Amino acid sequence: MIQILPQGAVDLSEINKNRIFDLMVRAYAITEEDIWGENYVRVPREEFLRLLENETFFIALEGDQLIGSIQVYRKSDTLFGLGLLNIDFEHKGRNIGSLLVSAAEDYARQNGGKCMQIEILRPEISDSAYKKWLEEWYEKLNYRFIETVPFEAIETEQSHKKKKMKTNAVFDIFHKTLSP
Predict the structure, then answer these.
(1) Which long-range contacts link 50-56 to residues 24+ away (Cβ below 8 Å)?
(2) What are the beta bridge partners of residue 79?
(3) Taking Cα atoms as reference points, which of 157, 7, 155 lies closest to residue 71?
(4) What pLDDT was estimated at residue 3?
(5) Which of 13, 76, 102, 123 has its CA 20 to 30 A from that of 178?
(6) pLDDT number for residue 17
(7) d(CA 80, CA 171)
(8) What's residue 78's pLDDT?
(9) CATH code at position 78
């Protein structure tokens, strides 16, 4: 049985922190290879561990095995964001992503959120089959496309990362109204 729990309810031993980090690295290395190239680490370990300690995450567990996670954060009084969604690819197709997104949305609602935002990084010019699939998946969860913005509009403090891209990339912004 799959459980979705806040990170405070999960044993975050070094082994489990490493497992969450490794799942995130693998997910983004595969899905963003066309942007960054092979073996790029989207969020360095130290930064990810700091986020895991200081931000809100939900963890997907099957028994005692960590199989995915998602970050949720406040962007303004009523706007929340979600990010760093990752699922062990061995468990793909089991509705784990939807369960994690739902937990993030519930958390936002409980904390005054009226809208949830997701930013999907994609190549500016070429089509990415995975990113197209991801956008369609979010639309099935009632997220609506709002706009496309340059990389620097979202990653305001990460301009050094742009130099590491093998192609220009942009963020597609999606919103979902959170009903009470």
Answers:
(1) 51/84, 52/7, 52/12, 52/17, 52/20, 56/6, 56/7, 56/107
(2) 115
(3) 7
(4) 96
(5) 123
(6) 92
(7) 17
(8) 97
(9) 3.40.630.30
Can you give the pLDDT at residue 141? 97
Q: Which amino acid is residue 158, in one-letter code?
A: Q
Residue 48 amino acid letter: F
Residue spans of beta strands (DSSP E) within the chain: 2-6, 56-62, 65-74, 79-87, 115-123, 144-150, 169-177
β-sheet bridge partners, residue 30: none
- Tokens for 27? 């997910």
DSSP letter for 13, please: -
Sites in the chain below the pLDDT cut of 50: none
pLDDT at 60: 96
Q: What pLDDT is stored for residue 125 in this prediction?
A: 86
C-beta of residue 120 within 8 angstroms of C-beta of residue 131: yes
Asked if 172 and 117 touch (Cβ cutoff 8 Å), the reply is no
Contact 32, 42 (CB under 8 A): yes
Whether residue 31 contacts residue 130, with contact meaning beta carbons closer than 8 Å, is answered with yes
Q: Distance between CA atoms of 175 and 24, rounded to whole angstroms?
A: 23
What residues make up the domain containing 123?
2-177
Please tell me the predicted confidence (pLDDT) of residue 18. Answer: 92
Quote the pLDDT of residue 170.
93
